[in-house]
UniProtKB/TrEMBL annotation:
It is found in: Cell membrane. Pfam families: FtsX. This is ABC transporter permease. Belongs to the ABC-4 integral membrane protein family. LolC/E subfamily. It is a multi-pass membrane protein. PANTHER family: LIPOPROTEIN-RELEASING SYSTEM TRANSMEMBRANE PROTEIN LOLE. Residues 79-186, 363-485 form the ABC3 transporter permease C-terminal domain. GO terms for cellular component: plasma membrane protein complex. The chain crosses the membrane at residues 35-52, 72-104, 124-150, 170-189, 222-245, 251-271, 307-335, 355-384, 405-432, 452-475.
Length: 492
């Protein structure tokens, strides 16, 4: 029988299956698949409201300058919001890729019935946009209400003067627009794999993505190499110029953006190897072996679950290291001018940089939280998509505790790799940023700023990330053992 005849013969089966999934699991699970999009949009919306209302508070408290202070804070807030949106975009793109991987057979069935890849891609992206809009609206309402409560409490305890505060600024529309636009673009980009699903895959019992999708395309390799090479040259050039002038910062900035984009695009070329190495180091127990094999079984899925957290940790560590270097260089430079022995100056400088450090960690740390959310969400979707496999593991003798432990260890392995890689990248980019800005102030050391890493703070960030991953992995781990072997065999 020819392939065409087989497809024709199976069309009635595909029609029945497509109708059944449209009413049943897909209808119920469609919005469940987009929980990560809604949660990420909610977090960024609340974050945006906090930043924008912070600038509005500055305008309320300093009206004499015509709102200039508030405008400066607002522009700075947009920079941090852009960083958060970047992390959200990475997580959302990976979330949609995971959704497509879990709907391969269903998409193929609709393709078999005549639906075009573009129409299916548009419908899936629209689902994500709707989920993002819901998260954004809820986030705006929650953020605005929280701001009003905080202002009321601060006035009540005397930390703020009693006056008329603007509790909802028109500027709030800006983060809302940024969040929705980010979700829309990320949804469209993340649904690209829909075009790679062929109708003949409707005949397969597998829900896994085609094997060729696990290989890094040549074009992606080329883009990665070009971005890394070009960005690396700009980063080195900006750092070199920074030894004589602070104008090296813009060059280093674009170099950092380009090179880190190359890292994100080419993450599939190194993340699976790191996951495999960490997995082997976890030991030889049943749960550890299961976790290690699951972490690297699908390189594409493994990378999707890791890269978002790598982005968040990189940004957080980068700012922490840059501020730590700034502290040392500033105090040394002041000492060279004869002001470094003033206890008042030293105390004020340390206090200002301490405050700046914690504010920056709080602001940029949102990216790490988003990354962790995306990692756990991808893990949860993976558990749902592996119901048959998990049930069969129970059938061949694996205990519920072993299955739960393997899921939790899988999250720990992913978080360890993300933290390790993010810390390395963050330290490098933090030093390059400080060097391109402050190198001219340390002429006595050849124009090179010292590498200063506050390991205690990096350790806190790492511990918090691992703890968050382990705790949030409990829900998917428990869900994994709810599938009995009989139910697993019934999963299509």
């Amino acid at each position: 029988m020819s392939a065409g005849a087989a497809v024709t013969e199976q069309r009635p089966v595909a029609v029945a299956t497509a109708k059944r999934t449209g009413r049943g699991s897909a209808g119920r699970g469609r919005w469940r698949d987009h929980i990560v999009t809604t949660v990420v949009a909610f977090i960024i919306a609340v974050y945006g409201v906090a930043l924008v209302q912070g600038s509005q508070l500055m305008s309320d408290l300093v009206p004499a300058d015509g709102g200039m202070s508030g405008l400066i804070v607002f522009i700075t807030a947009l920079v941090f919001l852009a960083l958060g949106a970047y992390s959200a975009a990475v997580v959302t793109v990976n979330s949609f890729s995971t959704i497509v991987a879990g709907r391969v057979r269903q998409i193929a069935q609709y393709r078999l019935l005549g639906a075009t890849a573009r129409s299916l891609r548009g419908k899936l992206a629209l689902e994500g946009v709707v989920a993002g809009v819901v998260g954004t609206i809820v986030g705006l309402v929650a953020g605005t209400a929280a701001y009003a409560i905080v202002i009321d409490r601060l006035v009540a305890v005397g930390d703020l003067p009693p006056m008329d505060y603007v509790l909802f600024s028109g500027r709030t529309i800006v983060p809302a627009f940024i969040v929705i636009a980010t979700v829309a673009i990320a949804a469209w980009v993340g649904t690209r794999p829909v075009g790679r699903v062929s109708p003949v895959q409707a005949l397969s019992q597998s829900v896994e993505a085609p094997l060729d999708l696990s290989r890094t395309p040549i074009a992606q390799r080329v883009v990665t190499i070009v971005a890394l090479a070009g960005g690396g040259l700009l980063l080195v050039g900006g750092s070199a110029i920074g030894a004589v002038s602070p104008f090296g910062l813009p060059i280093a900035f674009f170099g950092g953006v380009a090179s880190f984009s190359g890292i994100v695009i080419g993450a599939r070329m190194f993340v699976p190897a790191l996951l495999s190495a960490v997995g082997r180091a976890m030991g030889g127990g049943v749960a550890a072996r299961l976790a290690a094999s699951n972490a690297v079984r699908s390189p594409r899925a493994a990378t999707r679950g890791t890269i978002g957290m790598i982005v968040g940790v990189t940004l957080t560590v980068m700012f922490v290291v840059a501020i730590a270097i700034t502290r040392v260089v500033t105090l040394d430079y002041a000492a060279s001018l004869g002001e470094g022995n003033d206890p008042t100056f030293i105390a004020m400088t340390n206090m200002m940089l301490d405050v700046l450090t914690w504010i920056t960690v709080a602001l940029v740390g949102v990216s790490a939280i988003i990354g962790a959310t995306g990692m756990v969400a991808n893990l949860s979707l993976g558990v749902l998509q592996r119901q048959r496999e998990l049930g069969l593991l129970r059938a061949v003798g694996a205990t519920g505790g072993q299955v739960r432990a393997s899921i939790a260890l899988e999250a720990v392995i992913t978080s360890i790799v993300a933290i390790g890689a993010g810390a390395v990248f963050g330290i490098g980019y933090g030093w390059a940023g400080a060097q391109s800005t402050l190198g001219a102030l340390v002429g006595e050391t050849g124009g090179l700023v010292p590498l200063v890493v506050p390991w205690w703070l990096v350790a806190i960030i790492a511990a918090a990330a691992v703890l968050l991953a382990a705790i949030t992995a409990l829900a998917p781990a428990i869900r994994a053992t709810r599938v009995t072997p009989i139910q697993a065999l019934a999963v299509e």
